[in-house]
Every structure is written in C-alpha cells, then in structure tokens.
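Help! Submission page says 'invalid entity' but I think these are all valid:
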Amino acid sequence: MTKQDFRIVGKSVKRADVIEKVTGEGKYTGDYHLPGLLHGKIKRAEIAHARITRIDVSKALAYPGVKAVLTHHDVPKVLHYGSPHPRSASCTKDQYILEDKVRFWGEGVAAVAAVSEEIADEALDLIEVDYEPLPAVYDIDAAQAPGAPQIHEVGPGGNLVIPPVHIERGDVEKGFAEADLILEGEFEGGRPVPTYMEPNVCVADWDGSNKLTFWTSTQTSFMVRGALAEVLGLPLNKVRVLVDHMGGGFGAKQDLFQHEFLCALLARKCRRPVKMEFTRRETFIAGRSRHPFRMWLKQGFRKDGTLVARDMKVIYESGAYGSHSPGVTNVGTASATSLYRCENVRLDGRAVYTNTPIAGAYRGYGVVQTYFAIDIQMDEAAEKLGIDPAEMRLRNAVREGDIAPSGHPIVGRGLEACISHGIEAFGWQAKRGADRGVAGRPSVRRGWGIGCEMHGSSAYPGIKEQGNATVKMNEDGSVTLLTGAAGLGTGAHTALAQIVAEELGVTFESVHVVHGDTDVVPWDIGAFASHTTYLVGSAARMAAAELRERVLARGAEKLQEKVENLEMVDGIITARDKPGTSLTVHEAMGPSRGIPAEHLIASGSYMPTKSYSFAAHFVEVEVDTETGIIECRTVVPVHDVGKVIHPIAAQGQIEGGIQQGIGHTLTENYVIDRTNGRSLNAGLVDYKMPLSMDMPDIRTIILEAAPDPGGPWGAKGVGEDPIIAIGPAIANAVYDAIGVRFHHYPITPEDVLNGLRARKKELQDAGI
Amino acid sequence: MKKTLLDLTVNGESRSFAVEGHRSLLDALREEGGLTGTKKGCDVGDCGACTVIVNGQPVNACLMLAIEAQGAEITTVEGLQASPDELHPLQEAFMEHGASQCGFCTPGILIMAKCLLDENPLPTDEEIRFGLSGNICRCTGYTKIFDAIRSAGKRMAQQGVEA
C-alpha cells in the first residue's frame, strides 16, 4: 500500500441518495402505485404442523371485489431454495410456493387478490381450510429426540437441514493434555429479528409479451430474478426486478419469500398489477430471524493464558425451512477456528428443523452466537488464571499469518491494534480498579467488560463471489456508474461513487450511480456479507482505471501530448511539466478538429477471496440489583476496517450495529409458544428494541490498522462486525458489576434477580 | 363504500380528497394525496414513521381517521422546505451528519424534530432523546440523529430561522 493523498476517498462527502430521503422524494417499493393495481393478501395457518385435507375458496372467490384466489392446487409444483445463491455450494431445496402441508404457525396456505386491501383481508376469512394435525416440535431438543416427528421428507433426516459440519485441526486431546485449566460450559440465545423499518413489499406487473416486471424490497435482486424465472418457467430476460430505495434489510431481505412468488402468480392470473405488503405483524411471522442456538464449549488454557484446545458443538435452530441454515452453520462453525488463535480445534455444527418461523440471514450470520460463547469463556478463563481480561485477549488474538476461518492467512495485526487502542481510549485499567458502587444509588452496581470479534468481507469460500461494475464517461465528461449492488441504506452507492471518482480523477459530484434494475445494471450477487465496498468497490476501481486510460488517450490526442505525461485531477487533464497545457474532460470527450464526440465505457469484474475486519468493544453497564434492569451506559467500539472510504457512513454502521446488538443481549426475543408454535410478541410494543432513551454514549474509533490488498486501497467490510462483539462485552460487564455469570441472551431483569438470589444463596451456603 | 369529501390544507396548499370513513389520514395522504414521503412502518401507532403535523401538533397519521382531519392544516415531510431549492436546516443537518441511513424513519423523525425545535429551539440531549422516544430508527443507533438535531437547532437559533 503506497502512501497517497486522497481527494475524495476517506472524506465524508454528502451521500447523493440521502437528499431524496430527507425530502421524502425517494421512492420505496410501497410508494409505487400503478393504474388498475390490485392488493394481495395471504391466508396464514393457525396451526404449526398439519396436512391440509380440504381447502374451499368458493365463498372467497364469490366475494365482491375479489379477482383471484390461489391455493396449492393452482401454483407450480417446483421445489425451490429459500436462499437462492447460484454460486453457492450450500443451499437447501425444501420449499414449495404452496403445499398441502403446513410446517409452522403462520405459514401461508392461500393468497387472494382484490380491489382493496380490506376486501382481500375479508376474503381471507371466507377461505375454509380443514387440517389433519401432525405432531410438532418447537425446540432443538424436541426436534432431535428419538422418534421425533420428521418435518421434511428431503434432507439427511433426523430433522437436520444439512449433514453436520465437522472441522478438525491439530490434536484436541493433546491440547487438553497440555492445559493447566479446562473450562466447559453451555450457552444459548434467543430469536432476535432484524425489524427493518420497511415491511416486506412487492409489486408485480406482466406485459403483453409475458414479461414480468417486479418491484421488491430485496438485497439480492438478481437472486430474486433467478428464482422467479426458475419457478415460473421463464427465461431470465423475461423477468425484470427493480428496487430503488430500501428501508433496511440487515441480511434478512436476501431470502426468496413466499409472498413474492404469490404476488407474481396473482398478477399473471388477473392480468393486472398486484401489490403485496406485509403488515408489521407479518414481518415477524413470515420474515426471517436470527437462528436461536445452543452451544457446548470446552477450552483448555496454559497458566500464561495461552489457549491450547477448543472443542465445540453448536446447534442452530432453523425453524420450518432451511433458508440460510447451510450458510449460517458453515460460517458460524468455521468462525470458531479463529478470533483467538488455537492450533487444536474440533468443531461440530448442526442446523435442525423445528415447527417454528423461519430463521434466515441476519447481520452476524452464525458468528454472533459462537463468539458470544467464546468471549464469555475467555473472560472466565482470565479470572481463573488471574490475568486481566483485556491482556488475556491480547495474548491470544489472531494475527498476521494465522489461518483464518476461510483458510486464508490473516493480514496484519488488526485485532491486537483494536484491543490496545481501546484499553487506552476507554481507560480500561483505571475503570477496572474503580468502585463498583454508584454514589447516592445504593442498589446500583457498575461494571466494565470487553468483547472482541472478527468478520469476513465476502462470503468466500462458501460462495464464489463476483463483483461487477460498468463505468461510462458521457460526451460531456459526466460519469455514470452502473452497479447491481442494492442500496439498503448503508451508503454503499456513495462509497462506490467515491471510489470511481478517486480512481478516475473526476469530482465526486460528476459521478451518477444507476442501480436497481436487473435489465440494465451488471449482474450482482447481492448486498450482503459485508462485501459491497470490498467486492464491488474493487470492480468499480478496476473499471475506473481502465476508463481513465482511455480518457487520457483522448486527451493526449487533443493536446498533442504523450499519454504518460498527462494527469487527470478533478476532471481536468494537465500535462505534468506544462501547467498551461490542459483541458477539461468535457473538452476531451466533446468534438473538435474533426474528432467526433465520444462516449467511453469500461467494465470491471472482480473475484475476491476474503479479508477480515476486527473489533474490540469496551462497555460500561449499570445493573440495578432491586429491579434487575441492566443499562448499557457507554460503549467504546474500536474497529479495524482497513482503508475507510466514508468515515461517517462507517461510523453509522458501527453505531447501528451496536444498537441492535444491545437489543439482542438485553431485551429482544421473538417468542414462540412451545406448546402450540404460536407467536407471542409479533409487534413493536411487545418486541422490545433499544430506542432513543435507551442508547448509550457511543464513542466510535475506527483504525486503518490492517488494510487488505484485496479491497480498494485496502478497504474491508464493516456492516456485520459491530453486532458481534457488543453481546459478550455486555455479558462480561454485567458479571463485573454483580458477580453473576450469564451464558445466554437476552439477559432479562428477571434473569438478573434470579441470578442474584442464587448467588446470595451460594455465598450463604459457603458461609461467606 | 360511501366516500366523504375531505378538505385540507396540506403543505400550504388547499386539497380535497374523497375518502372512505375508515381510511386513516396516512392512507389518504399517501394514496389520495400522492404524498408518499410519509411512511407506513407499522400502521398501529408504534413506530412513528408516519408522523405529520396536524394543526401544529405531531400526530401518528396511521392512528387518525382522515375525516377527523377535516379542515386541518397539515405539514408532511414534503412541506419542510421553504422553496424547492432550499432545504430546511434540519434536512441539511441530517445529510451532513449522516443521520439518515435507510431513510424510512427519516420523514417522521424530521417532522418530530421540527415540532421539538418549534417548542424548544435549544433542547438538551435529554430533551432530544425524550422528544424522539416515539420514533423508531433501526439503522443509526440514533447517535447521528441527535448530532443533527443539536446542530440544526444551533444553526437556526443563530440565524433566527423559525423551525
């Protein structure tokens, strides 16, 4: 990495897409209204596992205003993926659009299109369904018990989504034999949901040539196109997927949803456009959650804190369908080979079906769960060995040359840099030595904790990724970047425009980004895996570099100079040693002296391997021992993301990830009744998220400690990292405050009070 | 279903919509008025994405029947700008501070922030937090939203701009 002066990269330029967001002009999928639009609604099962013995839609069809009703009798019978990544080795085909079987409470069994939402809703009640109930399983244990009812006919059996993932390196038994301390524990976590602000929505419209135009709020428009085409039996050029602004996704909007197929089919049947919009309640029931998990972890340490062996079994609860479970299980299990260096690991990862709503992709993708456990046990080991918890992590942090979960060598010493920097910035030593009591508030105890994480940019090697970009210079010197990457709100399009402007040598303002139309933009794998800046950014830089050469060649012709002697800065081409000899890109591209105007196009394709970003989070909590309420007061997140393209956008990712992570750790849990599979809190009042009154003081620090040669100027991902380290940091701080260890999330006030009572009894019994 | 004629002043302009009795103000604004800047995040008053100003007060437009707003003066996010070329200081500050990510909550939060600054031009951090307690943002962790409102308040106070 050569030192260079950046003109645009590394500056918090104004995001071009945000002006439309603050004026209200930006169009989200639900804002489109087409002439003759019909409204679609889905009839949802009120039983968790059953066979449909009769379904009668005659009354619904006869209801005034109803235009079509679909049941499993009327839709194509194509077994399809929930997570349709065509370049992935790990997908599970286990879904039909509609089937004569129900596998979770709330699953769609029929769909209606009508002239208004109200009429469609009323018609749902007129559909009569008879069910033959089947025995159901609502948690990991029940699903794995001998003789448990099987939820799927496909798959390896035993309610497993995929065959167990097994990873072994070194010699675990030898490692444990060398250990001075062996710790063993069980960990588990609930069912957080992403709760993006924009409920899932799509609009389908067919034209006379049997071509489908499909607006949908998705992170993966080309995957949606592929799956729709496959299931509907259409060539890819007969499906056009459009998405402009998106109201968040956080990973979960990269599934192929049942309502998307149904919307397209209803529109085809009615020959009219149909819109389907989830209610907030449906975003819980028919959306995607993080995987609830159970994990057993045994680790061995030497007296000096060195980790020498790790044995782990993790089970992810997939819910009724496989969705992203293959990916989550592989990524989550492999993540446990790393973070803290360990030569001897034996890891077993599984995903099991249950009759509950579907777990899918969600920011942190299987890693949130494993690192929660690993980082809590690291704290326990530090205490037992009498080593400061931050120092313990420094001694074990992965570093340059260690093998990453992907099998690649780690680049640089990013994790150590984050920990060391945070120790200073947070004032770790002084704080850990301070009084846990709070003056004037006798029931409150304070505590300080640390958590660490690393996360890959790109889904390699699980998915062989490819980033694409096309950059055009128009006849007037203005620049158009075409990208297939979705703009789910992160500012990725701005980062891509910055990269193009920097590499090309034009102003940021002269670059316009075109995105979100599968008929126009280059193919894209989707916006996920913290990879857009890393992957598509590299492709955009390649395209811009090629375009620059061609623009300079035109400039050379017009200036009668050698290309090698020209440079281009802010859209002005100048001869290096002749300051007066220059012309603007507009002049270069336009017609003159018999040279016609030109429009230049360059494209870049980039196939990455993998880079890793790192973080250490330092937190202060207050625990009220009378109410059990945990308050997260301060967070100092220290992240290494390589070269920062847009500092404010990067900070925003970190702060938003921390918000969600605090929620997962303390309050958020989508609860399913374990007696019948019903949703108990599918709404924003009963599903408790941290809001404006709950947010801590966050003092974000971003380091450029370990740039990766695979990203533009060394840039790496940042999207998923912040949600991972905050959980164990809070759990460790709570222990520091009240001396009670929690191995699960969310840690509720009730858990705190029960924990304090149990500890008091323990101390009494021990005569302390 | 029978429709009632609803006369409103929306963003300074007289508008008439024919609405069914059960329609919410949110649906009337979005579907009849074409004002899709105001968002539907939950439709049950929990998220604040549909906050608009009705006769000077912030209201969840999903919780108000359209016919209840008969004759009212309404401001939506589309009405924040004094002129098409000039952003409101809050809009400027949201852009500058990175207070909008996915942007779905932004219209409601901008409207809420305007109401807050109308009443209290230089709010404390606690007052800003309390003022936004009915608005869910899931992207930003609120940090940059607080920064933006603080900064817009200061700028407006210095310039004597009315929120």
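Support: the input was valid. A stray whitespace character was the problem, and the output above is from the cleaned input. The domain at 18-25+466-606 of chain A is CATH 3.30.365.10 (Aldehyde Oxidoreductase; domain 4).
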